[in-house]
Amino acid sequence: MPKFIATLAGLVTSGALLYYFQNEIENNTSQIRSKLHKTKNQLEDSLPSQLKDSSVSDQNHLIHPSKRPNARPQLPIPSITQTQNYINHRFIPTFKSTWNDQVTNIANKFTSFDASESVKNAKSFIEDKWNKNK
């Protein structure tokens, strides 16, 4: 029975925490959106009159909260498929080619590394410095 009570207490606690953080995230998101729209409106109000009319009519991609107070504004966010296509066809191949070039360069430096020559160069460098200090 103690395992059941501990499991039940864990589930209740995790559910409460999940509900709390979900509510907190929604509140923060709505506050950020309202601040964004207030700032956007302030920027639009600060435009000169000849620019204001064209910019307000051209920006129909945002739903203003004043027109629909209970609806969340729709921000222009790229779709998931566009993001997936970018990642799969552009980001990953570029990252892989850059990574492979760097690994190839390091491997070539390791294979062409001559330890005896490096020791001779280091020894002569140290001797030169030692002789200059005397």
TrEMBL record:
Signal found in the keyword field: yes
Residue spans of biased composition, Polar residues class: 47-60
Keywords: Signal
Highest taxon of the lineage: Eukaryota
Signal peptide (residue range): 1-16
Disordered, as annotated region: 37-77
Protein name: MICOS complex subunit MIC12
